Amino acid sequence: MSLRATWKGYLKLGEVVCAVALYTAVSTSERVRLHMVNRRTGHSLNRRFIDPETRKEVERADQVKGYEIASDEYVTLDPEEIAAVVPAGDKTLSVEGFIPCGEVDDLYFDRPYYLRPADEVSRTGFAVIREGLRRKQVAALARGVLFRRPRSLLIRAYAQGIVATTLNYDYEVRSVAEAFEDIPEVTIEGEMLDLARHIIDTRMGIFQPETFVDRYDDALADLVRAKIEGRKIAAPKEPARGKVVDLMDALRRSAGLSGKEGAKGEAATRVGKSSAGKSSAGKSSTRKTVARKAPARRAG
């Protein structure tokens, strides 16, 4: 496997233990990365910590973490003090129970990782756990210390391996009731609801992540390439936005119906498969190489 493991340890289910390796499933390394540069010299800038009172740079040996207890007043914590109270990890992800797949609200999903056997000896034990999850259509809840922090993980069978997703703690997920408490109750029925259903039915499709285009990253890649080649790049035109005067008329137009047609009429056109993915073919490879094409900086 070409990917580099970010963590190695053991997956434990009862008395079944197998060595596993954890790999980051989602990465932003292929995005166009911009650096802070001195406009006059072209040199990249270094980040330094400055004391706001003395205006002097603070040496690394004098940098310490602290918790603010009052305005500009902190309790400092040495690395040794933090290490002494943080639970020590034994490099084991211990399965504590099982739940039906889909039971966990995705608000609690933090970061996904690929989990696979770390050696040949562990392949059989790993396969037993994976197939057990798959056949019973359940996910396992496990606990362990990852990157010096105790974490809860949702473990699911995925293709030939396992996906382990770290979970947010309950206190980290903001209250849904508080977020939506001031939204008034609105009753929608009759033609409006029929039109909404019709729009959904005519545009129903399947999830195709390869058709999603990162327009921001593509625009940056095009801009960098244009600067390297010494040409100007035209700014994209603002999309036309029509004024919505009447909600019912907007629903009818979205459904492909004229303003006077009812919701039961058939839509004139149906939404086909997105061609966005095709138009962006080769963009990913462009992002990887665009910075490498820059000519060497000239002296003077």
UniProtKB/TrEMBL annotation:
Extract the InterPro entries matched here: DNA_bd_Ku70/Ku80 (IPR006164), Prok_Ku (IPR009187), SPOC-like_C_dom_sf (IPR016194)
Keywords carried by this UniProt record = DNA damage, DNA recombination, DNA repair, DNA-binding
> Spans of biased composition, class Low complexity?
272-284
Q: Where is the Ku domain?
A: 55-185
> What SMART domains does the database record attribute to this sequence?
Ku78
What Gene3D superfamilies does the record point to?
2.40.290.10
Q: Which domain of life is it from?
A: Bacteria
Provide the GO MF annotations for this entry: double-stranded DNA binding
Q: Which is a GO BP term held by this UniProt record?
A: double-strand break repair via nonhomologous end joining
Q: List the residue ranges of the region (Disordered).
A: 257-300
Composition bias type Basic residues, residue spans? 285-300
CDD domains, per the entry:
KU_like
Q: What family is reported?
A: Belongs to the prokaryotic Ku family.
* UniProt-listed NCBIfam families: Ku_bact
- Assembly and oligomerization: Homodimer. Interacts with LigD.
Which HAMAP family would you find in this protein's record? Answer: Prokaryotic_Ku
* Role noted for this protein: With LigD forms a non-homologous end joining (NHEJ) DNA repair enzyme, which repairs dsDNA breaks with reduced fidelity. Binds linear dsDNA with 5'- and 3'- overhangs but not closed circular dsDNA nor ssDNA. Recruits and stimulates the ligase activity of LigD.
Name the record gives this protein: Non-homologous end joining protein Ku
